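Students often ask why we bother encoding 3D structure as a string. The short answer is that it lets us treat folding as translation between two languages. Here is a chain of 518 residues written in the first language.
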Amino acid sequence: MSRVIQPEVKAIKAIDSNANSIDIANSARIKALDANIMTVFEHQRLMAHDFWQASDFHWLMAQEFAVFTIKRKQGQWQLKVGHYIGIVLLPSGMTLEILPKLIASASTSRPQQQSFEPHQNSDSDIGQIRQWVQNMLSDLINSSNQRNGKSANTKSLGQFNSQVTPLPLSDWLIEQFLKGLAQYQPTKHYQTQIDNQATLQGRLLIKEQLRRNSVQPHKFVCERSVLSQDMLSNRLIKSALVWLAPLLQTAMPPKSIQLWQQVRALNYHERQRLESVYQQAKRQLALQPLSQLQAQAAQQLLELAYWLLQRSDIQTGNGIAASLSSQPLSRPRLCLLIDMNQAFEQWASLRIASMFEQLNKNYQALHQAQSVWLNDAEGQACLSIRPDLLIYQTPNDDIREEKNARKHPYDDNQSTASAKETRNYSHVIDIKWKYLSHSGALSASDAYQLTSYAQAYQAGQVWLVYPVQGNVRQPVALRQQIHGSGDANSHNSNSAKLWLMPFDVLSGTLNGELPQEL
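And here it is in the second language, the structure alphabet:
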């Protein structure tokens, strides 16, 4: 039966005063951090006895989070983890850490093992998974200024650092946020303020004075400019700080806390329209007289705060506990859930697009560009397709025009439409968060999708990208068998080359060399 890893609660033994080994000190630190972490995996089944306190299990049952499916088997309630990763702060104070399922690292004809017995989840396995998840999230956060993944920025993608001991996901998020706060202080700006007060300050508003103070002439309606920290960018960052507060404990220096005490967090209604608030905050921040380093630090912290608040949606839980409360939530639950299907697709798209750009500057990428595939007799669109990634080459003289056109990939103007029609796509790439134990494990639906892309885009190569751990698995070419009369060899030579492309999550790269046209 599937079992969750029980939280490791161990007293840290005293270290000999003469021993100054960095490795020992670092190991002790990690064990201390893990003491309140309960680590589970995608698709794992959880029961009450798996938790440090059974009340945490019942609380999760009542919340009805989208990440869990409630089942009853052999007279016991179970929570099955879905295709999500993230963290949930439990009522007992324990942090539930959800990591991706284990991926087999060796090439084998056996199907993937779906059990999650404790002996299979060694400290090295968990550390390795945490490492690549944090690498993935770093890339996604740094590229979060893209809009729905359609115009991705790959310049911020860096090399992975495998020397740092990976932290639990919750502690890593706190560390990233504290680094941002250390480099940024709340920005002040002048804003117009109108007050009805006993002293005359600033400009007297005659019309308002006559309307409001005809019976109280000792007051003055004044308009003045005041230096305030009440900027949307500051308030958005403060909201993320409030959300992380239960995990911060004493990690935040007192001085840093004081700097943000006077800043108001976003209210409930502003959280409901977070996207528009974020866009306005970016515009306000861009107008501030900051140095290049200050502006960069502020922008990075704002991006991280926005990314956190996006994935800590106040509507995540709609269960019994939420329905009993008649008051709107004063602040979001400490619950961060990330759809692994979407996260892996976006991450692999960024990495693969960067690989093509490094290979040749003439390669251009379109992320999830939608195109009409089937029309009826009257020309009305019946069905559209949207590959995860389209790659095409542009002559040197046209690179600037193409980049400008990609800023608005869904504009319906004639210039954009004609640009799409003239593109010759070299690669159509579909990305799946699913494990393929061997080439024969390819599903019929995925194969139909690949051949449909090949027909629709007339590309030289069509890829199905899937995750692996390690570089053992190599690309596999799929040969289409042509049935029926006619010159089969000629027809086959004009068809696209279909490839199964393994993506190593540990290095964030495709395994093997880039397949060449045959």
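Translate back mentally: The chain has a mean pLDDT of 75. Keep this in mind for the problem set.
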